[in-house]
Structures are given as structure tokens and as C-alpha cells.
Amino acid sequence: MTDELVDRIRDALRVVIDPELGHNIVDLGFVYDISVVGDAVRITMTATTAGCPATGFLEEGVASCAAQVPGVGSVDVEMTFDPPWTPERIEPAVRAALGFATVN
Amino acid sequence: MIGASISRWTMSYFAMAVAWLFVALALMVAGVGFPAADLAAPDTLVLVHVICIGWLSLAMCGALFQFVPVLVARPLFSEKWALPALALLTAGLASLLAGFLALGGRLPAWLWLLPLGAVLLTAGFGLIVVDLGLTAWLRPVGPARFVLVGLASLCATVAFGAVFAFALAGWAGSVGQLILAGGVPLHAIAGLGGWLTLTAMGVSYRLLSMFMLSPDVDDRKSGTTLMAGALAIAVTVVGGVLAIGLFAGLNVVLSIVAVLGLATAALYGRDLFAIFRARKRRQLELNTRMATLSFASLAGTALLGAALVVTGNFAAHVGAFAFLAVFGWLSGLVLAKLYKIVAFLTWLETYGPVMGRAPTPRVQDLVAERRASKWFMIYYAAVWTGTLMLLIGLPSGFRAAAMAMTAGVIGIVREVIRTRQLADVASPLRLPGGARAPHLLFARN
């Protein structure tokens, strides 16, 4: 049940995109962890740049998106830059589409 | 939220800056000021200050209100000061320009307008220096250090300018007259080299890294670049004032500054190569491709300056040198980054609040790069042609180049306005439920 809820939350988060890269934050590897205790959800995520105004909107977007998933009671989103995001976290197909250097 | 929010008045600064840019272009097309008039003529002073304060400084301040908080990942010290500062700067510039027109006999001899303009500009820039300085000081590392040195240079520039304004009105005594007689190069170097160039360099490090997903340039390397630039400005201000006070002439000081300036440009070039080499995004967006033309213009400015000094022609062609620095390097970079910053901020303002609730477009969906690129190419080609016309002494050719620059800028500004109006966003995604179209001239946050 918990795994299924985590999967549903992960799927729902695909509506949230990084505005610069233009792909959803799940495929970009921004979502580090989703943990569920009862109906309380805790999402640990990152972004490309600390201090960027988009960071706050991403955080709020993830919170409101997850809250709409049936079975979710409360949502706590933690934005972290440790470890920092790297393009290696992107799904390979998306990375190729973005024209990223594969080795850096 | 970690760090920054959307700056409410950045768009207002950009709009006012663009308005002044059109004034400057109109003056150049009409043949008002250099090269039709002498470099020190009142008409040229009008043109120079419209460009440097009205266009470049306002655009830079607008960008800094948004990006200093990003650089230091802390909120702006006071958002409330931005609009009064814009009003003071606008009134101050208008007064200063009217004073120059009075100086040239185009208005009655109301020379008191010059000190009035200086006081208003000092107040406006003072608010900005305190606001941005206190914000950048919270975390003075990396590019933020460039901004701090840039702001210090702005203080020196304003101080020189204020002394000149009071001296021209006859209110600054013999010391003021002495500084006015010898200090104009110091004012220009502190403004163009310190305030505008060092600040642009600092912001460019962060913007390039951010938009190309490149690691930040090594702090020691950018620190060396900044050290060379800061030393150049310190020698300009301290050495220059001492030389004037000792009646020693400025040749030695300016020679040292020229060497340090060349070293700064070379070190900056080295840093840029490192950022481009390490970028994760291999495909460059239009704003970055066009910024590279401004970097090429900076290299061209440095080479031109060196060649003119070696051949003993610098004094005769200082106008062409300054024109390439101002329109190729600084204005080119500002226009390229304006194109990107407006799209990015417009996206955040419109779609940020509905993220997670509805599908949203990408930032790149707000722009039409292919259409915009031709206007940038026209602009840069015109700037380089204009520089050549000044070098070969063909004022009519320069005015034709200024017309082409105007066409390029009109095209770019039209694209930026379309971005702000979401005109190129396909309709299903354009305004999802809950999203509000942005206001053209300010952020609704």
C-alpha cells in the first residue's frame, strides 16, 4: 500500500516541470526521496540552482501536487542541495533529448 | 523559500532603460553629440549620460535587484527602496541633461540644474548602493564580490560626477575646478570600467553557469580577475586624484590602468573559456550565443585600445574605443541577457504559482529565437560598422550605422514585449486555470 502510494505520488509529480530544462522533475532526478508514514508524506527534493526564484515555486508546486493525490493527508517538502544535483541523475532518454554532455 | 523571490520593479527599470536607449539612438541618428560634436561638448555630455545612466545603469540596477539575492541566496535588504530610487535617478538624469543643454546654450543658463541633478542622482544611486551592498555583503563570495567592487566604483563615479556638476555651476571652488580640469578620464574609467564592466562580469559568471549548467568558476581564479580589475579602479581613483593634486599629469596613472585593464579582460576571457568548456548543456540558447558576440566585442575593444596606444592614436580615436566598449561589450551583453531574464521572470511570475496544479509551458516556449536572432545580428553588425566609421572618420556612415542599430533594437524590444505578453505561447498552455497574465511594466507579486 505504501509503495503503491509512493508510486502514485511520483507519477503525479510529473506535472511539475523545471522551467529551464522543460522536463518533469521526476525524469530530471530532482526527487531524492518520498517517504510515507500513515497518510503523512515527506518529499526530499533538489533543484539546479540554490537561490534561484524558481526553487521556491518548485517546492510549493510539489507540495500542492502531492496533496491532491488520494490517500495523502499532509505533505512536508524538504529542499536540499546536499548532495547537489548533477545531470547524471536525469533519465538517459531525457538526457539525450536535452543534448547534455554524458561525461563531465 | 530558499533565497530569492521575484523583484517587483526589475521590469520597470528595464522599461525605463530601454526608453533612454531609444533617446540615445535618436540622438546618434540625428547627429547630436559625438562624432558631429567634440567629445567634451555639452551635446556629447547629454548623449554619454543618456547612455551610461539612463540605459546601462538603469538596466544594470534592474538586473541586480533580481540577481544579487540569487548570487547570495538571501532576500533583498529592502524591496521598498527600488521604486523611489528609480524616481530619483530619472529626475536626476533629466535635471542633469537639462543642465548640459543650458551649458551648451540650448536652454537658458540655468546651471543650477547640474548640481540639482547631481544631488538627485547621488540620492538615487545611494539608495541602490546601500540596498544592494547590504544584501551582497551577507555572503561576499564569488560573483557577489564583483558586485561589491562595482558598487564601490559607482560611488567613486558619482562622487567625481557630483564634483564636476558643482564645479560647472561655479559652486565648487578652486579644488572643484582642478578636479574638473583633469578628472574626466577618472570619472569615465570608474563608471565604464569599474561600475558597469566589473559588475557585468560578476553577474555574467553566475548567469552563464546557471543557464548552461556549468560549475561555478573557481573562486581563486575569478578572485584574481577581480583583483586586477579592482586594482585598476583603485589606481584610477587614488592615483588619479593624487596626480591631479600634485599637478603631475595622468599619463603614468593611465598607463598603469591600461595594463591592469588589459590583464582583467584577459583573465576574464580565461574564466569564460573555463565556464563554456565545463558546461553540461551543449546546445547554446540564443542569449548565450549573442552574449559571446559581446565577449568578442570586449576582446576587440581591448585589442583596439592596445593598437591605438602602440600607434600613438589613442587620443584621436578614444571615441571609437568607447563606442565599441559601450555598445559592443556592455549594451550587447545587456540586450542578450535582457532577452533571457524577461522570459525567465515572466515564466516565474505567470506559471510559478500554478506549478503542480496544471501543465505549464517551458521558458523557451515564451520566446521565438529564430525570429529574434536576426535582430541581434543586425544590431551587432551595425555596432561593428559604426566603430569602423568612427575610426575612418565618416560621420554619415556612423549615422547610417546608428539607424541600423535602432532597427535591431526595435526588433529585439518587440520580441521582449511579445515575451512579456505571452504572445508566442500556444493557447492550451498559455493561461492555465489560476494563472494571471503579467503586467508589462512590473511584477504583480
Any overview of this molecule?
The complex is a heterodimer of chains A (104) and B (445). Chain A is an alpha+beta fold and 104 residues long. Chain A has 3 helices and 3 strands. Chain A has a 3-stranded mixed β-sheet, covered by helices on one side. Chain A is globular. The termini of chain A are far apart. Helices cover 75% and strands 0% of the residues of chain B. The longest helix of chain B is centred in the C-terminal third of the chain and has 38 residues, at 314-351. At the A-B interface, helix 2 of A face helix 2 and helix 11 of B.
Structure described in brief:
Chain A has 104 residues and is an alpha+beta fold.
Q: Distance between the terminal alpha carbons of chain B, to the nearest Å?
A: 14 Å
Could you tell me which chain pair has the largest interface and how many residues each side has? A-B, 35 and 39 residues
What would you call the shape of chain A? globular
* Helix and strand run of chain B: HHHHHHHHHHHHHH
Alpha-carbon Rg of chain B, integer:
21 Å
Structural class of chain B: mainly alpha
Largest sheet of chain B: none
List the topology elements:
The complex is a heterodimer of chains A (104) and B (445).
Chain A: H1 2-12, E1 31-37, E2 40-45, H2 53-67, E3 74-79, H3 92-98
Parallel strand pairs in A: 2-3
Antiparallel strand pairs in A: 1-2
Chain B: H1 10-30, H2 42-72, H3 82-103, H4 113-137, H5 143-168, H6 173-182, H7 184-212, H8 219-245, H9 251-277, H10 286-310, H11 314-351, H12 369-391, H13 395-420, H14 427-430
